[in-house]
Amino acid sequence: MRRIRLAIVALAFVVAGVVSLTRPSEPLEGAPVPHDIPADAIVRMFVKPEGDRLRLLVRVPLNTMQDIVFPTFGPGYLDIPEAEDEIRQGAMLWIGNPLQLFENGERLPVPELVAALISIPSDRSFTSYEAALAHVTGPPLAPETQLVWQQALLDILFEYPITSADSDFSMDPGLERLALRVNTILRFLPAEGAERLYQYTGHPGVVRLDPRWHQAAWRFVVLGFQHILDGIDHLLFLLCLVAPLRKIRSLVILVTAFTVAHSVTLAASAFNFAPNTLWFPPLVETLIAASIVYMALENIVGTKVKTRWIITFAFGLAHGFGFSFALRETMQFAGSHLVTSLLAFNVGVELGQLAALLIIVPALELLYRFAIREKIGNILLSALVAHTAWHWMTERWGVLTQYTFRWPVFDLGLLARTLALVALTLAVMGATWVVIGWIRRPEGGKGGEAGEAAEESATLPQASHGG
């Protein structure tokens, strides 16, 4: 027992020593203060090519300069004269080095740090390029300014050598590590033409500051392709759509109806025909979940192939608005090529759907041929999807009910937009009906008529390949 007591006392001394060594001590007055990564940060930038140089003006919160300790005085005021070296070091380490600018596809060299200036939080000079440039190149704050370092702003001027102000410029910001959430407001002032405004969160990839049509088109093709493959709700809708119908003619009819429908509402939203209210996005998300539930239940109960395309078209309108929410935040990167980017995004969505179908259809064929009978498999698979989508629908309905629904102000503009959207939808639906009728027409002879009649009269769960 005595040895146990001695061991406990010794262990207590060891623990006390470790705690005393690891406990943070209070910083002395004037000592450098370390800091952690901030939660949020707003970055403001101006990019302007002029002659043989490109100027980049940046404003960031000083507390985004991580691993840089700044000398202070008093209760934590920034010692501005003593912090000059740390400020310039942080400007290059966290802004100048990671930020990459390109001229005609060639990366520009590391920029020259022309000026780095501390500003107070209430400074409004970054409302325009001229005011920001005059401020950054102007006199610094007085040495005796009592500014808490966590509240200070850092304004920076970089200059890059370029060959021509009319070149094609692009940027890979690389500033997403400044905070857990970085919101950037970027203004590009080309040598000719109007100012372009970009607003994004995190890392947007390479930003074409004044994109050509093919650059904008490729960006939106990739965006549409990624969106359809990342959207599990759209993929489940496709699964329910094609699970009981894997013949080429049936697939063409349904995919055509879905594609045409979501293209209508996608274009309508891009041209501001959609409601611009807070309750509209959760309403669309709820309808998308409801469309999956309906399709899954329809697969279980059974319906005729002949009328399925109409339901598909109706739900495709809702999915098109869902696509538009992803597109809305990125249309700023289209430059002056709005229509081209819209079509390119739609092409990307269709390519994504095609890629999904190339996986879904063969997988279902293998499943129904070697693992389970088709009728039972359709029911089990549809029930599982319906269960998942039902939870989505109830959750999204709960979010939707938190908003206050208000009818939009009825005026001639609203009436004209509504009538135009309705007329466009009806016209496209009529054209789709004609195309589907042409696809469905018999190939000739009694065999074609008999095949078509058999296809239209068969209910969905009754199709069988495996007995």
- Give the total of domains: 2
Largest sheet: 6 strands, mixed
The radius of gyration over CA amounts to 31 Å
Which class do the helix and strand fractions yield? alpha+beta
What's the pLDDT, averaged over the residues?
A: 81
Strand order of the largest sheet: 7-8-2-1-10-11
Multimeric organization? single chain
Overall form: elongated
Question: How would you portray this structure in words?
Answer:
The protein is an alpha+beta fold and 467 residues long. The protein folds into two domains: 40-210, no CATH class; 216-462. It contains twelve helices and twelve strands. The protein has a six-stranded mixed beta sheet with strand order 7-8-2-1-10-11, sandwiched between helices. A four-stranded antiparallel beta sheet has the order 6-5-9-12, with no helix packed on it. It has a two-stranded antiparallel sheet with strand order 3-4. Strand 5 (100-103) and strand 6 (106-107) form a beta hairpin. It starts with a helix and ends in a 10-residue tail after the last helix.
Secondary-structure map with pairings?
Elements: H1 2-22, E1 40-50, E2 53-61, E3 72-73, E4 77-78, H2 84-96, E5 100-103, E6 106-107, E7 112-119, H3 129-136, E8 153-161, E9 169-172, E10 181-188, E11 196-201, E12 207-208, H4 213-230, H5 232-242, H6 248-270, H7 280-301, H8 305-328, H9 338-370, H10 374-400, H11 412-440, H12 445-457
Parallel strand pairs: 1-10
Antiparallel strand pairs: 1-2, 2-8, 3-4, 5-6, 5-9, 7-8, 9-12, 10-11
Helix pairs in contact: 4-9, 5-7, 5-9, 6-8, 6-11, 7-8, 7-10
